[in-house]
């Protein structure tokens, strides 16, 4: 997975500070899914452009 980005950190912080926040496990599972998806997209981008991974 890729590292946390600034927008991701902002979203996580906001999710934990809001009065009507979702359960913590839901927030963390979304974050893991998002980072995994960004990693997959990055790999596909590199493959499509012919970079060796």
Give a concise summary.
The protein has helices spanning 6-17, 24-48. The model has no long low-confidence stretch (mean pLDDT 88). It has 53 residues and is mainly α.
Number of helical regions: 2
Major β-sheet profile: none
Distance linking N and C termini:
15 Å
Structural classification? mainly alpha
Order of helices and strands: HH
**Percentage of residues in helical conformation:** 55-70%
Give me the count of strands.
0
User: What's the Cα radius of gyration?
Assistant: 14 Å
Approximate strand percentage: under 5%
Question: What would the average pLDDT be, to the nearest integer?
Answer: 88
Throw out a few tags for this protein:
53 residues, mainly alpha, 2 helices, elongated
Overview of the molecule:
Helix content is about 70%, strand content about 0%. It is mainly alpha-helical and about 55 residues long. The chain has one domain (about 5-50). The protein starts with 5 loop residues before the first helix and ends in a 5-residue tail after the last helix.
């Amino acid at each position: 997975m890729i590292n946390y980005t600034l927008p991701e950190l902002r979203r996580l912080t906001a999710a934990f500070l809001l009065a009507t926040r979702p359960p913590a496990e839901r927030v963390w599972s979304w974050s893991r899914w998002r980072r995994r998806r960004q990693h997959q997209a990055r790999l596909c981008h590199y493959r499509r452009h012919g970079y060796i991974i």
